Amino acid sequence: MEQKWWHGKTAYQIYPKSFQDSNGDGIGDLRGVIQRLDYLRDLGIGLVWLSPIYCSPLADQGYDISDYYNIDPRFGTMADMEELLREAKKRDIGIVMDLVVNHCSDEHPWFREACRDPDGPYGQYFYIRDCPEGQKLPCNWRSYFGGPVWDYLPGHKDKVYLHLFHRKQPDLNWENPEVRRAVYEMINWWLDKGLAGFRIDAIINIKKALPFRDYPADRPDGLCSVDRMLKDAQGVLDFLDEMAEETFRKYDAFSVGEVFNEKPEELPRFIGDRGCFSTMFDFAETEIGQDPRGWYAHKRVTAEQYKAAAFASQRKAEGVGYFCNIIENHDEPRGVSRYLPAGACAGPGGDAAKKMLGGLNFMLRGLPFLYQGQEIGMENTRCETIAEVDDISARDQYQVALHAGLSPAEAMEVVNLYSRDNARTPFQWDNTKNAGFTTGKPWLRVNPNYTQLNLEAQRRTPDSVWNFYRALIALRQDPVYQEAVVYGRTEPYLPELLNLMAYYRRGKEKTLLVVGNFQGRPRRIPLPEGGQKVLLNNLPAFDLRQDILYAKPWQFVVLDVEPQ
Question: How far apart are alpha carbons 553 and 530 in whole angstroms?
Fold first, then answer.
């Protein structure tokens, strides 16, 4: 694999609305990010992805963009953005923005012009079809947020438009070369400003299986998941390769794709040496236990499932390219509340379990991508009623659960486990009012546990989750071990042992053994014969006797071992 400038870095996702508010209006902003750049540098971060900060009516928290060339006043100004780029560069931090081009906002000038004249040039920027009221819709696909993907075009009773997501997010017609040309021009405009690259949102959806047709319904609503259509769609890589050639490759820019439903044989074209993207997120773990019927039918993740998914992804990417490794993001619940058993985060062993999960993910081959608050072990929040929930997908899934026969209380338990609000509560900086996030009223309620779980307390505690993440990042940057950590091969160790996740990272000169006791019980773990040097340990003690590690519950260690 060709070595790239970004391979040795650690990346970090900021959800600007919830990171740091600088002016007391309750909404995080760019000046808040600028204020916290030294924090990110001290943590060891080299790339920062900002979730959308473009002008938007916020129907889907900024993923409905009304102006790609301007900053939403809620977050600041273009001058603030340019200052952020300059200040981040001084600290050797590259800024990555969201690229949301499967759809735009219904308030974007393109769509407004399409509504004014559906038969004009901008009508071809979207999927608009004739459909007089009372007639059958062009297809029975279900929107990701529930309900049909078709809505009547504003001002017209005989035409409908396609939206795979919210009805205020009309899909752009990538079959139209004028659309693609406009997108590429916008990408290059930002790269010329000094942006390090883009995270590309929901990009697999840009290619539809045409002509529109029905698929077998998979719920009582008579609709089918969009995933079924995507399996039949052909040619998305032609679009993506054209985009890479016209934009990213010209600038040696970093690009990371949010890619679901890719076909195995296509992976080299996505992330190979001449792939469309630098890398893509590994979502194998997030898909564990999912059920097409809805969140209410999802199953909790087990240690063995997590291990199997992680190792399968490592095998898939070996010899092809680089994945981004994550345990959470703005669209997922908190990782420690999802992948650890219920109650594992509580009590004296809670921090050990959080460190173990973080370490096992971070040390896999690939680009570690932390989400804000992950480095202090932030957890899911809790809402008592659906009225407290902001997430539109959670509100839809609440109704799905009720229709499936769950009580309101049972449906809320489902929402509390999987809602995107879990990741969007404000960052917990300290134990002052509103966790130090804002002096005003926060746009989303702060998790009540902030009085105990916050950055300030962890910075003062040598064995905190935060200091453990700093140690992981420092190991990745250590010249002695960097080659093994960044490029070394992943080789499972004792994969047959239940609730043990262990693997070698074999480099050219160094071999590391990563071991995690993925359970709340002690166990004996045989280690390979020969010398072992402890590089990281999430607990104070390391009990090794005659090549047997007497591991405590949730113990995690990284060892420098003799090559076998």
Answer: 25
